[in-house]
């Protein structure tokens, strides 16, 4: 994705079934033009708070709010230092809250950030909230879970799923508990047209398999896919807060805005390249000096407007001097170590891969879930527009008889989503739908 293109994205966070407070948070900061894309890129963040009630909620909200801002602040220093400093400064802020308020001691949050830039996709990561890249029927996990089970599996050289639920929810790294934190930075992963990225909290991955996640994201639009995945997690008990963020790269079939937009993009890229190398204060100050000299020449030649131009020049010079003062007050420059890390060749880690094609078996699994859910809703007297659902179910049935498996799977998901949203709207906390099917153990690996 070397040129600027707007991405489609959707984000949804839900308290789940068993929890009373939502301690998850997310944020999106997509670039709006070519200059912003070249300088910073598209930025997306998911955070999962820990510490009980408002404590975890406060930590995750601060991480989701601060990391995009801090990354943008440091973006001119290079992608790796910018991501690292964003996480470290967010960690320092959360840690300070815990130290200043005894009731907030121990607050913390996981956080995973995705940055899509011209050279590829970068991931900054602390905790067990995950990032996946979904491409051509395969879901790739781009993050390493900072949990006991994943760490022990790494040391033993085995698949984490082979250890079962052993300390599965014990996090060994997060933002907030300690004054300093180690940040995993992965990238740049190549980005191809049609790629989709998913960020999520463990409220999703704890109950929905990566195969299901990838198939749903591939088959449905981002908004629909996010809603479906949240509702599927809730149907399976919703034991934790659930956050889903989906980012979809255009597949190349959509036309550009035209030649004018392309020319504007070239100018914006040139300006972004200049701004990356020359602080804005020097640019403004230089412009003010040029205008001041021009106004003096106009005054000597008795050209009208010299006074107005001189006043404008004076304003630019003052603004430039103020910006120069701010520039000198900034934090220490990027270290040689950070510069070396930014330019050194990097290993691209894909920690796990899953086949996520929309198979007939998966469609049938969702069809069984739908039939079981409809039966449960009728038994409980939960109101639902049966005529509208019947149309969706019939469309799924017709599509299943055709050769387009993707369309059939998409139609089945739409039909199940209709029922799931009606069911979730009506049910109370601590109540859960108990389906007559469960994913097989092999589907979790």
Provide key terms for this protein.
445 residues; alpha+beta; 6-stranded antiparallel beta sheet; 14 helices; disordered C terminus
Write structural notes for this entry:
The C terminus is likely disordered. With 445 residues, this protein is an alpha+beta fold. It contains 14 helices and 11 strands. The longest helix is centred in the last third of the chain and has 23 residues. The strands form 2 sheets. The chain has a 6-stranded antiparallel sheet with strand order 1-10-9-6-7-11. Strands 2-3-4-5-8 form a 5-stranded antiparallel sheet. Helices cover 48% and strands 16% of the residues.
Based on Cα principal axes, name the global outline: globular
Radius of gyration: 26 Å
Q: How many strands, which pairing sense, and closed or not: the largest β-sheet?
A: 6 strands, antiparallel
Decide which structural class fits the backbone.
alpha+beta
Helical content, roughly?
A: 40-55%
Count all strands and give the number. Answer: 11
Run of helices and strands: EEHEHHEEEEHEEHHHEHHHHEHHH
How are the strands of the largest sheet arranged? 1-10-9-6-7-11
Query: What percentage of amino acids are in beta strands?
Result: 15-25%
Q: Average pLDDT, to the nearest integer?
A: 85
Unreliable residue runs: 254-265, 440-445
Distance between the termini: 31 Å
Number of helices: 14
Can you lay out the helices and strands and say which pair or pack?
Blueprint (H helix, E strand, L loop, with lengths): L7 E7 L9 E6 L4 H6 L2 E9 L3 H21 L4 H22 L7 E10 L2 E7 L3 E6 L2 E4 L6 H9 L27 E6 L6 E5 L1 H4 L4 H10 L2 H14 L6 E7 L10 H19 L2 H21 L5 H23 L7 H8 L8 E4 L4 H21 L5 H15 L4 H22 L19
Antiparallel strand pairs: 1-10, 2-3, 3-4, 4-5, 5-8, 6-7, 6-9, 7-11, 9-10
Helix pairs in contact: 2-3, 6-7, 7-14, 9-10, 12-14, 13-14
Organism: Gemmata palustris
Pfam family, one: PP2C_2
Protein name: Serine/threonine-protein phosphatase
